[in-house]
Model the fold of this input.
Amino acid sequence: MAGASPFVLLLNPPYVDEVYDFKQDFSVEYPLGLAYLGGTLERDGVDYDILDANGLGYSFNSTVDAVLQRKPRLLGITSTTTTVVLAGRIAAECKRRDPGMLLVFGGAHANAVPAETLADFPAFDYVVQGDGEIVLAELCHTLQAGRRVEDDSERWEPVTAHGGLWFRNERGESMHFAPRRAFRQLDEIPFPSRKKLANHLYDIGPLMNAGYRGLKLTKLAGSRGCPYACNFCSEGMEWPAYRARTPENIFKEIETCYHRDGARHFYFVDDTINVRTKDLFKLCSMIKESGMKIRWHCHARVRPINDEILTAMRESGCFGLMFGVESGDPDIIRGLGKNITTDHVRIAVALAKKHGFKVLTFFMFGHIGDTPETCQRTIDFACEINPDLAFFSMATPYPGTELYQHYLANGALAETFSWDDFRPHKKNAMHHTPTMTSEEIWHFYNKAHRAFYLRPRYVGRALHRMLQAPREVSDYWWLVKEFVQSHEWIPSPVNPGSSARA
Done:
């Protein structure tokens, strides 16, 4: 498409240093959501392109220049709360230099607070809430026909419920419409189109790297949303509700990527893959009986986990499990809404190790009710269960979560707060509670890295793994840099995610 101007350009903004100073060292995420949008646009005959400024290592200025060079009629930007201010700046600069360009915004932040997003960022002409595939395709059809959404009754209808498209009319009034066309189930959504993304740019991250690169490494989603209601996460607390693809549909995508693209490593991005255990058993059986030799890893809940399901997963090629534990204090973990206990965690991690899985666990400091004592219990618990990798962060009150409402109710959000303050790994960000100061939370965040990774037991195991699998040297090098960054008196190393990028 060299020299061509697509009708739609889908943009993944860069994670520059000012936003997330080590994200690119951890992994370079494949923008699966944009690939899904591309699949539906292709089916509908809409001319589009994808610009993954993050994967390409672009800075703010080079991102804007690249967008303007392509001259799209419509620029679609995806973003989380962490990157929404940056996305807004990119949109504003693109519109300043090309006033005729239309901007549509989607992603996790838009899903949680669509009306507020439209008000906060004047450069966004449209904001999408919920599944974006049909919304974006119908918007393109309406614009290509030279019509306005509010006048195109064949395609759109006004709504007051969740989902759809938010925009301003000619008088500047906020409008909310939804497309009349809709997917009845996830199986109806076209598979993500991967042909406009340079697969060699993406890195799966430490520990779960099975040695595959390029097209051999594929990211996929077997479901959307989450049926649980953790108070720090918006997935289970906001619309739309949890939905799952059928095992047959997921298997068809795996089979397609395996035979067409040569994919051998699959990363399931589902929030928790073992919600529907019958479907998981069936998928594992289909993979095993197909004769395809693949490797895959996933996020899972610590319950339900048992020998039977772990055996089926291993036999189908699963080698890695990532558990959201969040706290090691029984009272704190009970109040998170995860419906698990510390004993469930102990059993699940021990079983996973028995079956030979690599295990990654996630922990956070700064939950509702956290104190220095409960944070220390979390560090002690992480060392006790001894996963292969422990990922620590600071609880951040993202919009759409109970934690966010708790901050509002307790006056912890200043009237002048910025979405730039919502960063899970940054000092002086939105990390303080009625029971802990931001300095205390930052202290335990850094202490956890030192306490967990400098244990002789862990260092010895890491050295053994690197000798057994040299490809994992780069994984553990990331841990070294993370340790360096936890010491405030040592300058943070320059990394691919910094503002010094191309």
